[in-house]
Amino acid sequence: MTARTLLVIGGTSDIGLAIAREYAAHGWDIVLTARNPDDAARNAADVQTRSGRAVRVLPFDVLSAASRDELLTNLEPLPDTVICVVGVLGDQARGESDPAHASEIIRANFEGPALILDALAARMITRGNGTLVGISSVAGVRGRGSNYLYGSAKAGFSAFLSGLRNRLAPKGVHVLTVLPGFVRTRMTEGLKLPPPITANPAEVGRAVFRAAEISRRNVIYVRAVWRLIMAIITAIPERIFKTLKL
Question: Mapped to the 3 state alphabet, what secondary structure does the chain carry?
Fold first, then answer.
């Protein structure tokens, strides 16, 4: 039997590496993307050495339409599962006065990921099967003053994934939304994260594989406690919520 193939969009990220390791450990071949393929070479070598599976790297800039077209042209065969882990936390304070930076945050977390997954969805519809996974964020469940640029983009991405799931369900293509909560990665380095609700990348990798390939879930929180936390946060009346420093 031909090995199944995973495409990780965002192959230089800590979470992307952990997901690639998990899938390769289960016998999958891996394709990683990166704006600069050399940046993903170390991750590719890591996964290949650990698993013995085939791993290759393709160039891809999520903010470039030309790069998107090039990736779609070179992506043969079409992967069985695609996981988009692209994201930029950005600097909220800078974004409030720098429209270019605000645009980068919004486009990198919503526009770019949505457009590439939509294009891949069209190809999976033609084939009649496939799985699309988007790594969104609990920050998108309710906007907060401390990161509303990032949070609003992730909210848009979550809504996109929900709509895509509704569209593709009758066509044999599964869509999974992942809400990791806090994860200790390079992107969150320097932030004070509470250990009881903070996952590590390997934990995310295991959760994604189980949800996408075994239980076929629709929406998951990597740590279940986040479902309760976000239920409490969303239940706070707006007149009170807007006075809180969050």
Answer: CCCCEEEEECCCCHHHHHHHHHHHHCCCEEEEEECCHHHHHHHHHHHHHHHCCCEEEEECCCCCHHHHHHHHHHCCCCCCEEEECCCCCCCHHHHHHCHHHHHHHHHHHHHHHHHHHHHHHHHHHHHCCEEEEEECCHHHCCCCCCCHHHHHHHHHHHHHHHHHHHHHHHHCEEEEEEECCEECCHHHCCCCCCHHHEECHHHHHHHHHHHHHHCCCCEEECCCHHHHHHHHHHHCCHHHHCCCCC
